Structure formats: C-alpha cells, structure tokens
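Q: Structure tokens for this one, please.
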Amino acid sequence: MIPGQSPARHGADLPYRLVATDLDGTLLTGDDTVSERSRAALAAATAAGAAHIVVTGRAVPWAKQVLDELDYRGLAVCGQGAQVYHAGEHRLLTSLTLDRRTAATAVARIEAEAGPLALAASRDGLDGEVVVGPGYRFHPGLPVLGAAGHDELWSAPLNKLYIQHPELDDDKLAATAVRVAGDLVGVTMAGAGIVELLPAGLTKATGLSLAARRLGLTSRDTIAFGDMPNDVPMFRWAAHGVAMANAHPELKAVADEVTASNDEDGIALVLEKLFPAARV
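A: Here is the predicted structure, written as tokens:
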C-alpha cells in the first residue's frame, strides 16, 4: 500500500513535511507499477510524520483507477492542478474549467500560424470523458471517446485540451502555442505527444498549494519529484525539486537535484537519505 497523508506533526524534526510526486515517468515505472522499494520509502516518510501528495497531469478519470490500484487514499492533485481529488473518498474537492470560447480562439490562432491540429478534449468532472478528434494519437490503454469532428469537443465543460501537429515536435508545438496564444491560455508539455492548453495561470503549483493548505503545510515544507516541463512550476514552488534521470532537459535545468530514473528507484534513493527508516 502507498500511504496517502498522515497528520503532519508540527514541530517534528523532519527534513520535509510534504513529499509531492508526479505519477507517469516519476513514481510509476515504465510498466505503470510502483516498485516495492518506492512503496517502502514513501511508507517510512509518512510514518515519520510527512504527508504524501500525488500531483499528476492526468485528470481524475484517468488518474483514479491508477490510484485505486495503488491503494492510495490521500489527496491527489490532478489535471495539471485543476482538480484536488480525495482518493480515499472518491470525491472531487475542487475543479477549475477551461473557457471553451477562449480555447477555440487559442486553437484558431495556433492553426493560423502552424496549420491544422489534431485535438482531444478532457471533459470536466469525476467521470468526465476524454473525447478524441480525428487524427489524434493516444495511448491505446486509456479510455477515450471518438469524435467525428472538432464541434463535438466543445459540447461539454472542459478542464483542458490536448493538441498535436503532424510535423512539429512537442517542443516546437508548445513554443508556437505560447507565442501566439499564451495570452489566452496556459500551455504545457506533460509527456511525449502531450501538449496541453489549460486555463490561464493554472499549473501544478496552483493545485499543490491548495492541497498543501488543507494539510496545514506550505511550500517551505515541500520536496517535489517530477520528469517533464509541466513540473517546472511545482519545482519553483517547492523548497526542493528533484528531477528523475529520465527527465526533460527543461526540468533538469531548474531542479535542485537529479536522481536516478523512475525505473531505478529514483524517488526511493532520495527519501532513504532523508528518512533513514526508509532504507531496506
């Protein structure tokens, strides 16, 4: 079992009282599992009095099954910070939506600059579907609904849009989106083939700060682990940011530390030094 939150012991002599971990490419290994060593390290940290919060780009519908399989029962920050989710109670505590007219305008600007995009829309809510438009490439293991055209993507409230381009790589597509539509929406890259349009100003740090406040904790209490550019704001917010060896160069550039990869127990290696009881 991966513990969720334990009550933070105010005044306890802990190096950090909050451990924030991304999921994909960070806590999860390449086969979407968590190693026994990482489980033990997180269990030791929470037993010592620290809290653990999962902070993921996945919206709740794509995150909750993973969290259930891990027996994670604490707070999780989902949807790039848009949602704070209580995994143990299967309850959505907060949710921020992307204005659909603004998103459509942003897409039009990007397409005017770069040409047609393939789109997918993540609908708001505890059971919101991901609706995939023509040509959008998605991970085959994830549940999606097909859409005949772009119009279907705007038919329900959204928390974010996914965009892909037939020729531009992720870095160039994200840079183009920021340049021509960054005044309207947030733009982030969460993984290979995953460039997202978000409500303006929204980041993982937004949601993490809300979740931390519910536990009586602050940025000064926090060590954060991640692997992609969408983790940059979280690293800037936290007292200490740890990038995985497999991390994107943009994240490594702002990290306080680089650990081993997600397949080599990178999180555990750090936590075992900070919380000696974590050593196995």
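A few notes: The first strand starts at residue 18 and ends at 21. The mean pLDDT is 92.
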